[in-house]
Amino acid sequence: MKNIYKSFSLALTVLGILIFTTTACSDDDKNATPNESLQGLWRLTELKYVPMEAPAAEDEEATSSEAEADEEEVETEDPSTLYPDVDGVQPYLRFGTSTYTYFEVTTADTTTRETGNYTLANNEITTESTEPSTSILGYEITGKQLIMIETHSEAEIFYYAEKVVGDPFLEEAPSENEEPENPDEEEVTGCAIYHDTENAPYGSSLNPILIETGVEITDSLYAIDGKNGHEAKFYLQVEPYTAFRIHLKDLLTDYADVHNLFKYTSIHVTDAFSTDQVLYTTKIEDGQKQLQFDLFTTTSCLYIEFFSYQEGVKFLFEVEDLSGTQE
């Protein structure tokens, strides 16, 4: 029987994975279970191997021999594996704020198989393991169920998982807790106390991404659940009454799917989590790729939000601290 680690490692190392994301939750169905966020612990329940149909052969003998070969493959290879498997192995996936861990649990011990970092953009997950290897994945979450699909020329592999309430393994083995790697998030102080880090997607308006001054940020817009548009929100923990310069260095757009009235990308800057204290706001029209402006904060938080009705918008920007600059 196949080992889930080998198959899952392929999923993280083979590019060209076909994945789709759905966040549809009918407003008419009041009893529907809300979709879980990707962050948290997922228990893998099944791996399903679905062979692709072989092309029709011109020669009957060739067709017959291929059919016999296919029958042999079916007999020797289990198309589906339920977990825990016959050996008692139960795989888990843990997604933190920006890190992931894949591990297996048996009655004897817990074995970590793979760890790394991940980012979200355009409904895709880009992972970078410690091996190292970089892959692009996606996901479909319906209620508490997660489905991942890996597509090869010869077969499709489906991974099914369900959300686990809490994380008992972190309580039993605190040394494996990935949160201490980011002290800012561990304490949940300052600006972050207003963010919905448990339920809102990372990079959304309710759960912005922490950045620093003097660092170029390259990212793209995220789809907004239940809304028409795409966004990406960032924040900085700053000193009050400080001057900053925001420099949009590049903006890549292709407004092929929206009406002329909506061919723009907006930037909205505030120094509070709510939008009450607006420091700067503007629309970047089609064809404009760069922008630079200065502002002055009155609080210890600085929020920068990008929005567009067009998907696939990418950008490069940097925030500069002007407190030590002599004009």
UniProtKB/TrEMBL annotation:
PROSITE patterns associated with the record: PROKAR_LIPOPROTEIN
UniProt keywords, alphabetically: Signal
Disordered as annotated region, ranges: 54-88
Signal sequence, renumbered to the chain: 1-26
Acidic residues compositional bias, start-end: 56-78
Protein name according to UniProt: Lipocalin-like domain-containing protein
Organism of provenance: Geofilum rubicundum JCM 15548
Lineage: Bacteria, Pseudomonadati, Bacteroidota, Bacteroidia, Marinilabiliales
